[in-house]
Amino acid sequence: MLTLHLCEKSDWSLTNLKLQKILYIAHMVSIGRDNENGLIDESFEAWAYGPVIPELYQKVKVFGSGPIKDIFRSFNEPPLGGLEEGILNDAFSSLSKLPAGKLVDITHRRGGAWCTAYVPNANIRITNESIKEEFKMVVPA
Hints:
Number of strands: 3
Distance between the termini: 31 Å
Strand order of the largest sheet: 2-1-3
Number of domains: 1
Strand content: 5-15%
Radius of gyration: 14 Å
Shape: globular
Low-confidence stretches: none
Number of helices: 7
Mean pLDDT: 90
Structural class: mainly alpha
Order of helices and strands: HHEEHHHHEH
């Protein structure tokens, strides 16, 4: 439902890269606000262009760098709740109009979770603990 929700809000104009980055940032906000599990059940991995959910990437890679079309009706995701939907809507509103390169810059933040996990060609798992630390770095208490 998360991917479907974001793609519908964008009128099916999001690319794989932008979808991955918006989901990552929304997940970080959720974890940072003390939702221990965050929004995403799957783990993000540190890939060359930033945090990626491998299963989602495999599903949408067929669209290349173009907009993703409606293929999520059968994607297994939990239904949205009020808090999750609010976080997603906020992330979409503030991030969807940014160029993909700017989203890559944001997720490649020095000292951030991606930066500390990234090893070229290794696709290392990014832990929720390191994502929470990144949130604390970005949004001081």
